[in-house]
């Protein structure tokens, strides 16, 4: 590409990033809506702890089901991303609005599963679409997108800290935002670095994982996902208990603010991870981030009963590094996968990752019941350390020359 053409594309790609990142955050607003109003739903429907947990798990499992079907049908490589995002956003908006008519947990859980399945038509295609706008700086671009979503995931905790909100109003607003996000995404076409159009190959998702380089990338991603959503899902519960044990006033509100900060700081981590991934190499950055994240989890295993300021400081460090590598796994896939099936590869990787998160989320309360929070943190810390080993293995393969402009 000539310098003149590069200069013409440069402003356009940042405009595309701004639009698409905003569109995806809006489109995925229903994912975070139930977390924002969970205390109100528990009161309105007299939810048990099991029901409340399933409202969270249903979205994860719905996403997995939607991603598996999408990958098997190669949807992200056969249909324009903006079409999939619009369809997924509208489906999510409709399922989210259905909560207004639900009379109890069973219907709500089913609707949350449909919402999760719809998100599988939004998130992977958006990552693929943004990859067509960036060849250099792709790690930063995808880091910005994941960082925006991280901030969106943190906002419900801020809402709860401020006293919650009328749950029906939250559902309506997030549904409208989802539809708006789909329309915004429709405005963003593919960039100049387009991938070849795929043909229908149902077995391609499995073939993509059998290669050694893609397999190691996926193992690294699974190590990252093992701790991420479990930490996000249970940190508020842990910190509420800590504040209560130290006889501090209004522990639930204090824990809500702390959780907003711990999850929200990850948005900055995503950007820094993107910058370092582009400059240092993605295998190096992901291994470093997982080593630091795993070390934080293991440190908390020893300091779970320490003074709240000490625990919060360590948790903020954990929240920064636990997500800093996330977008880089998707970026690696976009660089080493069969170009015609990048969307399928991204969707397959995400499906496996979110399947694992459902298990780790469910495992945490079991571990806490048997050995307290120190045992839970210790087990969570093992995943990223194993993931770091996988990424060091990837760095030694010939495919590493195709990652981050040859930086690996």
Task: Detail the topology: elements first, then pairings.
Layout: H1 3-27, H2 29-45, H3 49-72, H4 75-78, H5 81-97, H6 105-119, H7 123-131, H8 138-161, H9 167-186, H10 204-210, H11 212-245, H12 251-264, H13 266-280, H14 282-303, H15 308-324, H16 326-336, H17 342-395
How large a portion of the residues is in β-strands, by DSSP E? under 5%
What's the shape?
A: globular
- In CATH terms, what is the architecture? Up-down Bundle
Q: What is the CATH topology classification name?
A: Growth Hormone, Chain: A
Task: Walk me through the structure.
This protein has 17 helices and no strands. It has helices spanning 3-27, 29-45, 49-72, 75-78, 81-97, 105-119, 123-131, 138-161, 167-186, 204-210, 212-245, 251-264, 266-280, 282-303, 308-324, 326-336, 342-395. The protein is globular, with a radius of gyration of 20 Å.
């Amino acid at each position: 590409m000539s310098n003149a053409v590069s200069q013409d594309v440069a402003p356009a790609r940042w405009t595309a990033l701004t639009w698409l990142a905003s569109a995806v955050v809006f489109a995925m607003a229903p994912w975070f809506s139930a977390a924002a109003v969970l205390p109100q739903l528990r009161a309105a429907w007299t939810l048990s702890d099991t029901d409340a947990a399933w409202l969270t798990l249903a979205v994860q499992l719905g996403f997995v089901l939607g991603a598996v079907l999408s990958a098997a049908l190669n949807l992200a490589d056969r249909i324009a991303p903006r079409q999939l995002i619009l369809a997924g956003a509208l489906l999510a908006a409709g399922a989210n609005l259905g909560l207004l008519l639900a009379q109890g947990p069973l219907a709500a859980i089913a609707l949350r599963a449909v919402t999760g399945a719809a998100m599988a038509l939004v998130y992977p295609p958006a990552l693929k679409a943004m990859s067509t706008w960036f060849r250099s700086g792709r790690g930063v671009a995808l880091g910005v997108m994941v960082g925006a979503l991280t901030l969106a995931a943190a906002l419900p905790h801020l809402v709860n800290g401020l006293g919650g909100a009328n749950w029906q109003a939250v559902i309506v607003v997030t549904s409208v935002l989802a539809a708006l996000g789909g329309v915004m995404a429709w405005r963003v076409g593919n960039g100049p670095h387009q991938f070849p159009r795929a043909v229908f190959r149902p077995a391609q998702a499995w073939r993509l994982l059998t290669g050694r380089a893609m397999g190691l990338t996926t193992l690294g991603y699974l190590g990252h996902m093992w701790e991420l959503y479990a930490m996000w899902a249970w940190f508020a519960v842990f910190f509420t208990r800590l504040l209560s044990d130290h006889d501090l006033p209004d522990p639930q509100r204090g824990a809500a603010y702390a959780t907003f900060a711990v999850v929200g700081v990850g948005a900055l981590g995503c950007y820094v991870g993107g910058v370092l991934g582009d400059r240092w190499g993605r295998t190096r950055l992901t291994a470093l981030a997982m080593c630091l994240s795993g070390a934080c989890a293991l440190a908390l295993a020893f300091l779970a009963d320490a003074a709240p300021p000490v625990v919060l400081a360590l948790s903020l460090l954990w929240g920064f590094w636990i997500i800093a590598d996330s977008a880089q796994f998707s970026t690696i896939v976009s660089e080493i996968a069969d170009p015609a099936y990048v969307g399928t590869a991204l969707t397959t990787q995400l499906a496996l990752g979110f399947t694992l998160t459902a298990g780790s989320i469910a495992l945490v309360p079991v571990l806490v019941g048997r050995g307290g929070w120190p045992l839970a943190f210790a087990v969570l810390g093992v995943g990223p350390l194993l993931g770091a080993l996988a990424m060091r293995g990837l760095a030694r393969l010939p495919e590493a020359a195709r990652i981050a402009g040859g930086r690996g």
